[in-house]
């Protein structure tokens, strides 16, 4: 069972999400929070698998709450907002979120997102990745390679670049002529070496280290 905490200052929004998620056999909403501070406290007490976090929250905004949650636990956070803006996507991932969805997403997409993040994957589509790369390129003139990348082999660097481009393990396997299991092993080893939580954090590190640049994806 995937335990979910809903954090949104609008009661009707929480009720809608709860109705959708509680209708699934493998998902249950164990708590709700109306403020960012309450979300942090409840997460600490209840330790849900996934937190659905609104960005604009009273007392403590969603990004700050997300940062506190991921720094103190292994709980996964999906950012939910009505504002599909690059600043929010970038900020959410930098804060440690594992996914990003706008509130008008379809119910099945919401359910899928919870399942994907709960199993340890990141919810980050190639289209979002492209926007992130463009956004970061506009902020930083000369990104500096991270010393953390020195621990990677050439093959692992290649795999990480493809992860950062939004490719799935199967797509990476096809591109590099590997088995899907081998591609998955490479990704797991990379995350272990770099001490990152999930694929979303690999993307952040990759474009902050200039491993990928605008136009790389075509």
TrEMBL record:
Modified residues (4-aspartylphosphate): 54
GO function term, MF aspect, one: DNA binding
UniProt keywords, alphabetically: DNA-binding, Phosphoprotein, Transcription, Transcription regulation
Superkingdom in the source lineage: Bacteria
Protein name per UniProt: DNA-binding NarL/FixJ family response regulator
All residue ranges annotated as the Response regulatory domain in the record: 3-118
Gene3D superfamilies (alphabetical): 3.40.50.2300
Record Pfam families: GerE (PF00196), Response_reg (PF00072)
InterPro entries: CheY-like_superfamily, NreC/VraR/RcsB-like_REC, Sig_transdc_resp-reg_C-effctor, Sig_transdc_resp-reg_receiver, Tscrpt_reg_LuxR_C, WalR-like
Domain HTH luxR-type: 145-210
């Amino acid at each position: 069972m995937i335990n979910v905490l809903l954090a949104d200052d609008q009661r009707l929004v929480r009720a809608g999400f709860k109705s959708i998620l509680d209708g699934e056999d493998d998902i249950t909403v164990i708590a709700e929070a109306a403020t960012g501070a309450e979300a942090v406290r409840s997460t600490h007490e209840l330790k849900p698998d996934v937190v659905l976090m609104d960005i604009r929250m009273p007392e403590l905004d969603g990004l700050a709450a997300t940062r506190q949650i991921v720094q103190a636990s292994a709980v996964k956070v999906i950012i939910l907002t009505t504002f599909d803006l690059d600043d929010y996507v970038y900020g959410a991932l930098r804060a440690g979120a594992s996914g990003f969805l706008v509130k008008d997403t379809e119910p099945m997409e919401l359910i899928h997102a919870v399942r994907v993040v709960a199993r340890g994957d990141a919810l980050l589509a190639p289209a979002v990745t492209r926007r992130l790369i463009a956004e970061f390129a506009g902020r930083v003139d000369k990104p500096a390679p991270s010393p953390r990348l020195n621990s990677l082999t050439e093959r692992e660097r290649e795999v990480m670049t493809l992860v950062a481009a939004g490719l799935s393990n199967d797509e990476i396997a096809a591109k590099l002529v590997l088995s899907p299991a081998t591609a998955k092993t490479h990704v797991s080893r990379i995350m272990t070496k770099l001490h990152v939580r999930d694929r979303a954090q690999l993307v952040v590190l990759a474009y902050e280290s200039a491993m990928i640049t605008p136009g790389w994806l075509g």
